[in-house]
Automatic annotation (TrEMBL):
Protein name: 3-isopropylmalate dehydrogenase
Gene that produces this protein: leuB
Keyword line: Amino-acid biosynthesis, Branched-chain amino acid biosynthesis, Cytoplasm, Leucine biosynthesis, Magnesium, Manganese, Metal-binding, NAD, Oxidoreductase
Subunit structure: Homodimer.
Alphabetical list of Pfam families matching this protein: Iso_dh (PF00180)
Amino acid sequence: MSNPSLLILPGDGIGPEVMAEVRRIIDWFGANRGLQFDVSEDLVGGAAYDAHGKPLSDETMAKAQEVDAVLLGAVGGPKYDDLDFSLKPERGLLRLRKEMDLYSNLRPAQCFDALADFSSLKKDIVAGLDIMIVRELTSGVYFGEPRGIFEEGNERVGINTQRYTESEIERAARSAFELAMRRNKKLCSMEKANVMESGILWREVVNRVSADYPEVELSHMYADNGAMQLVRAPKQFDVILTDNLFGDILSDCAAMLTGSLGMLPSASLGAPMANGRPKAMYEPVHGSAPDIAGQGKANPIACILSFAMALRYSFDQGEEADRLEAAIEKVLADGVRTGDLLADEGVQPVSTSEMGDAILSALDASV
Ligand code: NAI
Ligand code: MG
């Protein structure tokens, strides 16, 4: 059998810096755990625009469709701010999501004990937090028609339409139930069925899908209450399923419970391919951080945790993903900090590659 394939798209700004550390981690798993990947690397975003005048070439798009998983760094930067909308670095990312039809966006909010002081909430409310938000990513109000700004009488009206088909709800729900089965078999679905017809349909379809997952304890919550509960008592949740708009807001809210942007991974999954693996792209939540790019200051953990998600969700290597996360936990517990994780001035921050070194040593110690 051939090795699983990975396409690495480092992108712009700190993207290449954090991805360099991920490559060392990938090599470590190859050398020490017999996990060999066929890794190829290509351009996306501003880097691709500089090379061939487009934020993602057709060749790179075709490659992304063929591989088992895509790992992306970050795109964008001030240099590209004045480009035409269709050429902006972000368009490269959107094209990947759209053409791979990545409809299920997984955003974990996990609080490493060593960083619990970082949260804006009290330590005991977030310590040990480990929840996952599944956000429908390809439909809903960001895509529904009609949309636009129209003349109506003697004023203008701005219109967006929240629109969900049963099949769109169903596939997002299935991915959330599958995830719940791999975790703690607890799922909370959030919409506003009290005021939105799309929410009524959402709830009905989720209930229908739940018949296929009798072991999963399903609950429903109005999304506004969900937002309150997330900051009041986030540990009551395990997997949360929600639509594109509410998911955008709820996942950012949940993510910040845990501290720094430099710690947050994500996965975007689509339909199963012929080999049974889902179409998949893994990327940190943060952007290209132009303010610190090129200085060796970036925290590589968000990108490394994104690779851990790839191990778990694309390659069925949950134990190795646990190993990697435990190594990161250990390094943080030892007090190793990049600049973004520093609370007080006295502590010396480590560089991007020193953080990589520390994680590799912890991995060495784990075998
Ligand atoms: P950003 O996430 O790049 O940076 C926000 C702040 O967080 C900055 O102060 C930055 O230094 C810090 N930060 C982010 N990641 C960090 C890390 N790994 N380690 C240490 N500090 C980190 O968001 P911003 O500044 O709004 O956008 C900058 C550029 O990135 C823009 O061109 C934007 O369009 C693009 N962007 C790209 C995204 C992507 O590729 N998925 C997502 C968000 C923004
Ligand atoms: Mg957002």
